[in-house]
Amino acid sequence: MSLRTVFAEAGRVRRLVGDLPTQEFALLRLLLAVAHDALDGPRDIDHWADLWDDEGCFAPVDAYLAEHRDRLDLLDAQAPFFQVAGLQTGKGEVASLNRIVADVPNGDPFFTSRMPGVERLGFAEAARWVVHAHAFDTSGIKSGVEGDARVKGGKVYPLGVGWAGALGGVFAEGSTLRETLLLNLVAADTGGIRFDSGDRPAWRRDPDGPGVLEGRQPSGVRDLYTWPTRRLRLHFDESGVHGVVLGYGDPLGAHNMHTREPMTAWRRSPAQEKKRGEPVVYLPRDHDPSRAAWRGLASLIAGRTESSQGAEAAPFLRPGVLEWVSRLATEGVLERRFLIRARVIGAVYGTQQSVIDEIVDDRLSMGVVLLHERDRAYGTQAVDAVSDAEGAVTALGDLATDLARAAGAESDGPRGTARDQGFGALDGPYRAWLAGLAEAQDPYLAREEWKHGVRRIVEQLGRQLLETAGEAAWAGRTVPAKQGTQWLNSGLADAWFRARLTKVLGAPQAATPAAGRAAPASDDFLPKVTA
């Protein structure tokens, strides 16, 4: 679909699907920049509500795109889209398209259909990778281009990854692309996010040259979503694109950009505060590929005032787009039971950020009532339910450790394996429970129900650990204790395990189904684990 078709059909399109999840994130930001500029807003929450109620709210985008058609032309001779006309290196080299196609890892092209490399791209796919390069391009040494004062010996030394690559990307996803675009279309009067009156996207600015304008800062989300972190130029013929010139563009520091960038969570950095001599420094909170999104739920739904203590600055800030959705829920523009998916996307870089090692892509379904500022019961119980799972899995890991000690074996491996199995077994049930929490009449009863389900799942995993522990653990042995030594076998390890579960989840009791929603963590979710 073209840009014009995407907006015309946004109510019928489920979502964007790029060549990579990171491409989806980059393209969504491009569409948001178009929407913000074409609609010149939303100015405030009333303007947004009018757009939400109007199925044809994106109708002005068609005329807007026609007006700026020349600057959105990938092949324009004077100002090609997201490129620099006439860009060239001192020796006139043209690089392989592997430089911008991120699913061809340099040196390790084992999991790609493009083996051994990318020789040619169609124009539509090339346009997607151009957008992706500005957002997620790797760091490392790049060829110097003529006219760039940063060139030394024909090269420019590492200046960091593309802007979106520095983020732990987060956005709110609705049931259609139209809903997704609107949910992330933050109003200009939103507290905590700065919008300057002159904010405009790249295609409404003077075309970039090969050099850099030192000291320029984004004027708002339209500017930031289209920030030119690279200078590049595609080489093509009548049948497609066959090469690229790629260099560094405008650098952008991440520290304290929380008032500009709404599509990431933020963490306070004492180390940077000390280094920079500033009282408060926030940096983007990136994603951990080994940790499912639900385990970091607090950073997504805890409000800024809730995560701070008195006058002390908050240790973390939730993403601005979720602050915005919270406002929509709190002011009653969205129904309390309206369901969104908090989508998290990010790149994990390796070897001095010169390669992409992993890509994170996860989503959490939740009712917007979890973000409600004046009714925190649902959000608090959702976060505390994560703590229930963490505590139960810790008890399971302790059981694996104790059984290994009783058998005279190393404990680190069994403990890590047990924890992985525990979180894996609770992943589906928690997601189902969270998605249905908004339907519960009493969030406290819903959490008690969740605890009951956690106990059943983790107890079964514990039984399987005991069954596979072997005769050595059953017989036991003398092990070091806080005061001298003690005899440890599988029977005592089991007793300790059940006591720890009781401390975390309370005494075993029958579940009380929360009215108004289906019971989570049913027996269908119970894992079948083999030794």
From TrEMBL:
Listed CDD domains: Cse1_I-E (cd09729)
Superkingdom to which the source organism belongs: Bacteria
Matches recorded under InterPro entries: CRISPR-assoc_prot_Cse1
Ranges of Basic and acidic residues composition bias in the record: 198-208
Annotated stretches, region: Disordered: 198-217
NCBIfam families: casA_cse1
Protein's name according to its UniProt entry: Type I-E CRISPR-associated protein Cse1/CasA
Provenance organism: Streptomyces anulatus
